[in-house]
Design a protein that fits this description.
184 residues; alpha+beta; 6-stranded mixed β-sheet; 3-stranded antiparallel β-sheet; 17% helix
Length: 184
């Protein structure tokens, strides 16, 4: 009887556990026609290959090299499509008053550590080095139409994404226009 109880006890304990689905063995990244990215455990077709993720932390068995962390550039490059948007100035905005105009960008899924931004006006970088800031005051510009583009760089300084060009107008302050009118 004790032997029978010893065999039945583990089975009884296992049957008492709630039915919880285990984590998927394979994960697929699917990009829908509208650009939406979906992660699923169902292969979209026979040729699909699952994403490969190393352990999130710790080291490999046998003392091998430590795998990349969850937010490593390699994993982000595989799993995420970055999108950069210019939030300010808005398309067609006219800057008139001579005050500081701040360029602001957003990055989806987020500006990850080690990634940086290059703000370009009319194709020229505004700073000598890439910035980790989501906003940057624009220097005074010549009067006229300008175009702002924000470029996202990975830790190796390779371009990952760029915003759509955002046109805006820069007008000289009222006092400068008045002074020019008086000179004519």
């Amino acid at each position: 009887m004790p032997l029978r109880l010893a065999l039945l006890l583990p089975l009884a304990l296992l049957s008492a556990l709630p039915a919880v689905p285990l984590a998927a063995d394979e994960v697929y990244r699917v990009v829908r026609p509208d650009g939406t990215v979906v992660y699923t455990d169902q292969a979209p077709d026979r040729r699909a290959k699952p994403l490969r993720f190393g352990p999130i932390s710790g080291s490999t068995p046998g003392g091998g090299r430590k795998p990349p962390g969850f937010y490593s550039p390699e994993i982000l490059r595989q799993a995420a499509k970055f999108v950069v948007r210019v939030e300010s100035p808005t398309p067609g905005q006219v800057h008139r008053d001579g005050s500081v105009l701040v360029a602001a960008a957003s990055v989806m899924p987020g500006l990850v550590k080690g990634y940086s931004l290059v703000y370009q006006v009319d194709g020229r970088a505004l700073t000598e080095a890439p910035s980790e800031s989501l906003s940057l005051p624009l220097p005074p510009l010549a009067a006229g139409r300008h175009e702002l583009v924000v470029v996202l760089l990975d830790p190796r300084r390779q371009e990952v994404a760029r915003s759509e060009p955002t046109p805006f107008d820069w007008q000289a302050p009222e006092s400068a226009r008045t002074a020019r009118g008086a000179q004519k």
